[in-house]
Structures are given as C-alpha cells and as structure tokens.
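[09:14] KT: can someone run the structure on this one? pasting the chain below
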Amino acid sequence: MKYLLPIIAIILIAALYAGTGSLWRNQYDDSYITYRYAVNLAEGRGLVFNEGERADAASSWLFTVVLAGFYRIGFHNLELVSFILNMAAVGAIAAFVFLSAVHLGLWQPAAILLGLIASLHGFISGWSALGMDTVPFAALLVMWTYWTFIDKRMVFSAVLTVLVVLMRFEGMLVLPVWYMTIRHHRV
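[09:31] RB: done, structure tokens below
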C-alpha cells in the first residue's frame, strides 16, 4: 500500500485540478521568479533575477538549484518540471504519513485515509498546482519527522536536516530540535 498510496494521491489531485487549467500553467507569480533565477543560474549568469543585479527574491535556494539542474540538462519547461516535482512531493507526503501512522500502531485502513487526507488537504493540493517549493518543503518535513522521530535513522535524518535548511529559510527551525534529538539518541 505504501507504493500505491502515492499514486492514488497524485491521480486524485490531477483529477481535482484537471478542469481548472492550473495543473502546470497559470502558476503563482513567485514560481516564475524562481524559474527566472533557475534559468539564469543554468545559463551561467549566476543566482540572479537580472544579470548584474544582486537581489535575493527566490523563495528557495535548493528548489531553484534543482530546477536549474533540470533546465541545464534540457528540460526547459520549468512549469512542467515543477509540477512533476510537486506531484512527487504529494506522493511522498501520502506515503510517509501512512508509514508514520502504521508504525505508531494505527489500523492500516485508517492510516491510508490519514495519508490521503494529509496529501489532499486544500493547502497541500492547492499549492501543488502552483509550482512553488511549498509542497516539496512540506514533503521534506514529513520525511524528516519520520526518520528523526519514528524510524530513527539518523543518517537519513541528518541528510534531510540539511535539505530542509537549504530548501527554505524557516527550515532552520528544525536545527535545535534535531540537535536535541541527536544528543538524546547518543545517551
């Protein structure tokens, strides 16, 4: 079920937004700021909005770098790339909420429902169609929570801590929690 649930969540979101014309078009204006930063980075002009100007307006350093990587290797439709990354993030949210719930002893059908509710929630599903880094950031946080507190794989937790911090500035809020967890884990 942990492999089927993400697919179900993605299909439901695609069905939900299919008639809106927003699946990978008409995305949020901040998305286009990030895309411009990514294109400029990929084309060698640096992490800038306009060449020669140093302004920091991209919402997510990591998401911008990932998009620049896709652009660099030939995927120039960043709206579509962002949409695919967001759908993968929706699937990860569904899967890791399900895994967390099962690991904590929740009845499997209830865990399935919880995974779907978390991934199809209005904020998550709505943001997933807008091209922003918000849903991938949420997915990283859900995975971080799972591997830090539930499955307790500290190597994965450490890698995800770095990714969360690089994804968004507010990701730094996990650092003191992770540090206290590591200290507790060693004792």
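[09:33] KT: thanks! The chain has a mean pLDDT of 88.
[09:34] RB: yep, looked fine to me
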